[in-house]
């Protein structure tokens, strides 16, 4: 006998139909967590409406209708407008609706005040959600239940991996995983440039750099070995790898990466204080 899926009877609404919302919706549908007929959103832009309707999502002509016809509402609007949007919709945001925010730098306490209740979950995903490899961190509001948390972990698990953490850690999360993809893109570009400098054609250098980063990350995730051990496994005595590592250490590579994360985390703290 098949075990019923707890999301089967639920309706999921998106307030804000940008790229992140699309990535979440597509992941949820692709993974079979929810059918597209259970997802709804609204957007004025024709291209965004087409993006969602192309895989079966229901489109409404007002955010009010999305709220009224949803059990779980994900706010995926820009941080600078979320207060205005939530306050406008507040009369419809009853406590029988689970509210989720993916707006960076917007505190749970502010969301609770604007929405009028604390059945909220804050989630910090990152852009690899677009390819199903997001690193997402979630924190539950005062009235959110264990079942609410499991539901949202299931939804965001459709676009990558999910961790739970206290909201006080979210600025650090932003500095690491929120901004982190950009740091890795710079590293890939630099590796490719190094390959070109060493004589490789650009396309080959970029392909090798991208696949090398992907493979190294997979090794770190799947082997259970500490990154230092994986590094040692590649660096043979007097070899090419240790010569390259020596140059990284002379340039303060690890300190630069640590300072980069700290700078982004501190900037996130500045935003959250506004």
Automatic annotation (TrEMBL):
It is an enzyme of class 1 (oxidoreductase). It catalyses: L-proline + NAD(+) = (S)-1-pyrroline-5-carboxylate + NADH + 2 H(+); L-proline + NADP(+) = (S)-1-pyrroline-5-carboxylate + NADPH + 2 H(+). Residues 167-270 form the Pyrroline-5-carboxylate reductase dimerisation domain. NADP(+) binds at residues 15-20. GO terms for cellular component: cytoplasm. InterPro entries: 6-PGluconate_DH-like_C_sf, NAD(P)-bd_dom_sf, P5C_Rdtase_cat_N, P5CR-like_CS, P5CR_dimer, Pyrroline-COOH_reductase. Pfam families: F420_oxidored, P5CR_dimer. GO terms for biological process: L-proline biosynthetic process. It is found in: Cytoplasm. Pathway: Amino-acid biosynthesis; L-proline biosynthesis; L-proline from L-glutamate 5-semialdehyde: step 1/1. Keywords: Amino-acid biosynthesis, Cytoplasm, NADP, Oxidoreductase, Proline biosynthesis. NCBIfam families: proC. This is Pyrroline-5-carboxylate reductase.
């Amino acid at each position: 006998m098949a075990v019923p899926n707890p999301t089967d009877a639920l309706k999921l609404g998106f307030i804000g139909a940008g790229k992140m919302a699309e990535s979440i919706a597509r992941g949820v549908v692709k993974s079979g967590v929810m059918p597209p007929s259970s997802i709804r959103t609204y957007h004025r832009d024709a291209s965004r409406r087409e993006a969602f309707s192309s895989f079966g999502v229901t489109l409404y002509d007002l955010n009010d209708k999305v709220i009224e016809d949803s059990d779980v509402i994900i706010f995926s609007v820009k941080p600078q407008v979320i207060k205005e949007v939530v306050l406008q919709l507040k009369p419809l945001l009853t406590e029988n609706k689970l509210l989720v925010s993916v707006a960076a730098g917007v505190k749970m306490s502010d969301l609770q005040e604007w929405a009028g209740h604390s059945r909220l979950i804050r989630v910090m995903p990152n852009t690899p959600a677009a390819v199903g490899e997001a690193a997402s961190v979630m924190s539950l509001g005062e009235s959110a239940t264990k079942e609410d948390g499991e539901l949202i972990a299931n939804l965001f698990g459709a676009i990558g991996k999910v961790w739970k953490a206290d909201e006080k850690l979210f600025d650090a999360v932003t500095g690491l995983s929120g901004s982190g993809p950009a740091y890795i893109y710079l590293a890939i570009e630099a590796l490719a440039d190094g390959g070109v400098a060493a004589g490789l054609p650009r396309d080959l250098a970029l392909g090798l750099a991208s696949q090398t980063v992907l493979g190294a990350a997979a090794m770190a995730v799947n082997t259970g070995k500490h990154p230092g051990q994986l590094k040692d496994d590649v660096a043979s005595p007097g070899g090419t790898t240790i010569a390259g590592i020596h140059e990284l250490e002379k340039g303060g590579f690890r300190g630069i990466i640590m300072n980069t994360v700290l700078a982004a985390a501190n900037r996130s703290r500045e935003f959250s204080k506004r």
